[in-house]
Write a structure and sequence with these properties.
mainly alpha; single chain; three-stranded antiparallel β-sheet; about 240 residues
Length: about 240
């Protein structure tokens, strides 16, 4: 926890003079999405409040917002924990991803598309794989799909998917073999990018739909191995 708090203190400057619970929740959501706070982690009010330099009331409101987003769970007399997802949660995350991401690609219109950030995410994933950093590969993968959604140019869609991708990171944490999970999709991201670069949105959508179906199956199977058929994994599994 000390390492996570040290990194969190670096985000203090992001709060500026207009510190609000929404800004704090944005920072914590980002940290969850980047994998700094694994599922089941108890979040210390004193530690996080001190690192960010915010009041207890502000932090509690931020916790409340993230609980509403299903990223945190409050346990009476125990504190606030990063939520542990159920198998049903994972299936629903992928259902939402398929509906939104495929619709974004389908509605892109005429090329060319702004693909620089997608290209950067593919490069980050390949570089992390060469270094054997599979957590970073997972992060690059999430970045790729976040930037894919951003092609729609919709703030509402971006906001919806920020929470979905943060939940996805929670799912990745319980996969016991991150290399097996992430490695196949480095090349598949590149295939989607190539199709978009050639203006082939129908091909890109077909590749994306297959990609998401395969990923859902892999993550669900890993979850069932890890947490059992009921899909609960101890602390923070409720909502």
């Amino acid at each position: 926890m000390a390492q996570e708090l040290t990194g969190l203190a670096d985000d203090r400057a992001l709060l500026g003079r207009t510190s609000t619970a929404e800004r704090v929740s944005d920072i914590l959501r980002g940290r969850i999405a980047e994998g700094y706070f694994p599922p089941g982690t108890r979040l210390s009010e004193d530690g996080i409040g001190g690192a960010l330099g915010v009041s207890r009331n502000t932090l509690r409101e931020a916790f409340r917002l993230l609980t509403h987003e299903r990223l945190l769970v409050h346990e009476l007399n125990r504190g606030v924990f990063v939520r542990v997802l159920t198998v049903e949660d994972v299936v629903d995350i992928y259902r939402t991803r398929t509906l939104v991401e495929c619709a974004v690609v389908r509605g892109l219109g005429a090329p060319p598309f702004a693909l620089d950030r997608l290209t950067a995410a593919v490069g980050d994933g390949r570089r992390a794989a060469r270094e054997g950093d599979w957590k970073a590969v997972g992060t690059a993968n999430i970045h790729f799909h976040r930037e894919l959604v951003a092609l729609a140019g919709s703030e509402r869609t971006d906001e919806l998917m920020r929470t979905v991708f943060a939940e996805l990171r929670l799912a990745f944490h319980l996969v016991d073999d991150p290399r097996r999970l992430h490695e196949p999709y480095i090349g598949r991201n590149a295939e989607i990018l190539r199709a978009l670069g050639e203006g082939e949105t129908k091909t890109a959508e077909r590749l994306l739909a297959g990609y998401l179906a395969d990923s859902r199956e892999r993550v669900t199977e890993a979850y069932l191995r890890r947490v059992g058929d009921e899909g609960t994994a101890g602390r923070g599994a409720g909502g």
